[in-house]
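Running this now, will post back.
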Amino acid sequence: MYPILLLIVGVGFTDFWKRKWIMFGGGFFLIHLAVVIHLIPISRLAIIADRYVYLAAIGVFFLIGVAVNHLIQKDRYKPLLLTLSLIYVASLAVYAHQYSKKWHDSATLKVEMKALFERHQKENYKK
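Update: finished.
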C-alpha cells in the first residue's frame, strides 16, 4: 500500500519536485528519516533513540525557511509574518525566563523534572 502511495505522490508532484530547494529539503528529511526508522538498515548500536530524527528535521525547517522567505518578499504578507515571528520569540523569551527562576543548578533541575514527570504520570495514567 505505502509503495503505491509513495509512487502516486512522487509522480503526481513531478513539477513540484523539480525545484532544487524542495528536492534538497525533502530529500534530506526522507533520507535521515529512513535511517531512523530502519528502512536503511544500520546497526542498532549506531542509532538507539528517536532523538536522531532531529537531524532529519533540518530538511523540514529548511523548507519552512524557504517558504517564509518567499512570503516575506511579497509586501502583502510581510507585516503578518513579522508580527507572528515577534509573538513567537516573545513567548519563548517569557517561557525561558519563567524556568530560569526555578533552575539554579543540576539538583533543582532534577527535582523540577521529577515533579513534572509525576504530574504527567498522574494525569495520563489514572486508574
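The chain has a mean pLDDT of 77. More later if anyone needs it.
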